[in-house]
Write a structure and sequence with these properties.
By secondary structure, this protein is α/β, with parallel strands linked by helices. The chain is 31% helix and 30% strand. The chain has helices at 43-50, 71-74, 93-103, 109-116, 132-144, 162-175, 190-193, 214-220, 231-235, 258-261, 272-281; strands spanning 3-14, 17-28, 32-36, 57-62, 78-81, 150-154, 182-186, 199-204, 207-213, 221-227, 241-245, 248-254, 267-269. Helix 4 packs antiparallel against helix 5 (132-144) and helix 5 runs parallel beside helix 6.
């Protein structure tokens, strides 16, 4: 599988603060990757480096290019939606499509219009007349209509209600993603993107602490409801996290055979949200 992003020893400091600390990772073509981390962990800094918006130390290639030195060429093949992305309030939908038709060589107006025909957005509407959900739909329509090999989404559905969030991801899958394209998502709404993901990365204090595919997550991590009288026995297997519940504890184990853990209580696959909490609190 070809790597669309390759980072080795990626570092970025702001004064004494290390936003990225020797981070190394690969993102393969045809994947949907979740980059998950707490506030201040380095997610947005990593995206800024990938998009050529920030200088960096280490080796970083996106589509085989140095994003800082070859940004103009790179951005012809990359689409980006940020949590702070805004469109000019005075512009109409038609004017926006006119503008993109002129400036971007890989923009398909026909595809954008087809997408927008499925919404309540009128061609004559100005951005200032649209709801936040409609603005996000408009932004998505223009973005997925660019023939890009990599789409980067930084908290793309921030502030939207659950209906719009669900519709956003459905449209992303149906109208953009295929085996030749790659999506990188950062979000705090982990539960909503979990079904979409093929791969998962956790970042903590500028370091990548987990980089794996979703199939391996199911194989490596197990969550167990441990009854109170078996807690001491369970602790001997070194859980990476433990949470009290009525009548016992919920523990997450890494690389411990599930047949062994079944003796302690009901076992289940660990959700990405629960795994994230476990890995962030893990002191090992």
């Amino acid at each position: 599988m070809t790597s669309i992003v390759s980072a080795k020893g990626l570092s970025k400091s702001y004064g004494q603060f290390k936003a990225l600390d020797n981070a190394s990772f690969e993102i393969e073509t045809g994947k949907i990757v979740g980059l998950i981390g707490p506030n201040g962990a380095g997610k947005t800094t990593a995206l800024r480096c990938l998009l050529g918006l920030a200088t960096f130390d280490g080796d970083l290639k996106v589509l085989g290019k140095n994003p800082h030195k070859q940004r103009i060429e790179l951005m012809k093949e990359v689409a980006y939606i940020a949590d702070t992305a805004v469109l000019p309030k005075w512009i109409t939908v038609t004017q926006l499509l006119d503008y993109l038709d002129v400036i971007h060589p890989n923009f398909s107006r026909e595809k954008a219009e087809s997408f927008l025909s499925q919404t309540d957005i009128r061609a004559t509407s100005r951005v200032q007349e649209l709801s936040k959900g409609m603005v996000t739909q408009l932004h998505l329509a223009t973005t997925i209509s660019i023939d890009a090999k990599l789409m980067v989404l930084d908290e793309p559905t921030l502030g939207l209600d659950i209906v719009y969030r669900k519709r956003f991801y459905e449209q992303l899958l149906n109208d953009y993603f295929d085996e030749e394209r790659t999506v990188l998502i950062t979000t705090h709404q982990v539960e909503e993107i979990e079904p979409l993901l093929t791969d998962l990365m956790f970042i903590k204090q500028g370091r990548i602490i987990l980089d794996t595919d979703m199939e391996s997550v199911a194989q490596r991590y197990t969550e167990v409801e441990v009854k109170a009288d078996l807690v001491d026995k369970a602790l001997a297997f070194n859980p990476i996290s433990q949470t009290r519940m009525l009548g016992g504890m919920v523990m997450v184990f890494e690389n411990t055979p599930r047949d062994t853990l079944k003796e302690l209580g009901p076992c289940r696959n660990t959700s990405v949200a629960d795994l994230f909490v476990a890995k962030m609190s893990d002191k090992s």
